[in-house]
Amino acid sequence: MTGTTPGTPSLLRVMNDRAALDLLLEHGPLSRTRIGRLTGLSKPTASQLLARLEAAGLVVASGTAGGRPGPNAQLYGVNPRAAHVAGLDVTPGGIVAAVADLTGEVIGSHELPYAEGTGAVDRVTLALGGAVKAAGLQRSDIHRVVIATPGSFDPRTGALRYADHLPGWHSPTLLEELAAALPMPVGYENDVNLAAVAEQRLGAARGHGDFVLLWNEEGLGAALVLGGRLHRGWTGGAGEVGFLPVPGHPLVRQVTQVNSGGYQELAGVQVVPGMAAALGIGAPPVATAGPAGAAPVAAAVALLAQAAGHPEGANLLLLRQYATALATGIASLVAVLDPEIVVLSGAVTAAGGDVLRELVEAELADLAPSRPRLVSGTVCDRPVLRGALESALAATRDEVFDTSRR
C-alpha cells in the first residue's frame, strides 16, 4: 500500500475500511452498530468509517432496519455502481458474455453464436458490447474483463495450447490484438479453472484450501487448487486430465495431434452411448441442433439422467460401469495430490446425480490410498462464466476498496 507505514493510524484506517466493505459484501446492508460489533470498532469510529466510505462513493445508504422499539437504524451497503466487471465464456459454439456490478449481481448478458469467417477479436468485442448494452452501460464503465477459454495461454509464448477445437484463437499475436481492441485490463483463464473459482467462492468448495474439480462435458478436465490457489503448471496445462494414460484402455500416442488421451477414451462423454447400447438400453430422443460437440453431451446427459431416475437392472449397471471409468482417473489425481474434497462438475456427471456420485465415491475407496469426500458442484448456472465474473471482481475489489489510493 502506498503512503502508509505498518502500525500507523492511516494503515489501520485502510484495514478497517476493507474489513467493513468485505462484511457488507458477505452480509448485505448493515447498521453502524452492527458494523461496529462485527469489526470490534466503537460506534463513533464505525460512524467515521462509514462517513469516509460514503464520501468515497463506496457505500450508500440503503434503507432502514425496522421491527425494533425506537428509531429505525440506517442501513449501509456496498455501492453497486462503484465499479463494473465483465466475464466471457468462449466455446467452439460461441461466446456468452455477462456484466456484473461490484456486489456481483449480473445486470446484463449477451450470447453470440459462432459465425464462420468472423475473427476472434471481432467476436469478443461484439459479445462484450452486447452485454454492456444490455446492462445500460458504456464500455468505458467496465473496469476489468476476464475471458474463459478451453486450454490455456502459454505464459512464455502467449500461444493458446490444449484447445485445437477452438477456431480462430491460435494466432501468435491474438493477445496483443485483444489488448489493443479492449480499453480495460483483460485477464485470461482456463474454463475449468474458472468453474473451480466459482465453486471456491460461492459453492461446494467454500472453506476448502485443497481440492480437485473434475469437469465433464465435451471433454474431461480438472482444476487443481492447492493451498487455496489455482495450480496452473509450467505451460498452463495442469489439469488436462483427458490426456492421462490410465489402466483399462490402450495407450494413446501423439496425444497433442489426436487431441485425446487414455482417460478421455475411457470415461469421456462419447463412451456413454456405447456402454448403454451394450447393456440393451435404448437412447432417449435428444435434440441434435447446436454447435459441434453438443450432440454427444446431450445424448450422454439423457442416458445418465434416465438411468439415475430408475437405478435398477441395466440402468444401475450403466451407472456402475461409468462410475468405475470415472473413478479410475480420479484415483490417479488423489494418489498424487491427496485433496480434501473432489468436486464433480459439468452437465454429464450432474445428470447422474447423487446415485452416480455415490458409486464413484465407493469405487474410489477401493482404488485410491486416501478417501477424499466427493461432492457435486452447486454453482449450476453457467459456472465457467460465474467464475470469470468472480475472478474479475476479486481483482477489481482489491483495487477499488484500497482507500489508501484515495
Describe, in plain words, how this protein is organized in 3D.
The chain is of the alpha/beta class and 406 residues long. Helices cover 42% and strands 20% of the residues. It contains 13 helices and 15 strands. A 5-stranded mixed β-sheet has the order 6-5-4-7-10, sandwiched between helices. The chain is globular, with a radius of gyration of 24 Å. The model is unreliable at 1-6 (pLDDT under 50).
Strand-helix topology:
Layout: H1 9-27, E1 30-31, H2 32-39, H3 43-55, E2 59-65, E3 73-78, E4 84-91, E5 94-101, E6 106-113, H4 120-134, E7 142-149, E8 152-153, E9 160-161, H5 174-181, E10 186-190, H6 191-202, E11 211-216, E12 220-226, E13 229-230, H7 255-258, H8 262-267, H9 272-278, H10 294-309, H11 313-337, E14 341-345, H12 347-367, E15 373-376, H13 383-400
Parallel strand pairs: 4-7, 7-10, 11-14, 14-15
Antiparallel strand pairs: 1-3, 2-3, 4-5, 5-6, 8-9, 11-12, 12-13
Characterize this entry briefly.
By secondary structure, the chain is α/β, with parallel strands linked by helices.
What portion of residues is helical? 40-55%
Structural class: alpha/beta
Quantity of strands, as a count: 15
Rg, rounded, reads 24 Å
Largest sheet: 5 strands, mixed
The mean pLDDT is 92
Query: Largest sheet, order of strands side by side?
Result: 6-5-4-7-10
The low-pLDDT segments are 1-6
* Separation of the first and last Cα atoms: 11 Å
**Count of helical stretches:** 13
Strand percentage: 15-25%
Shape: globular
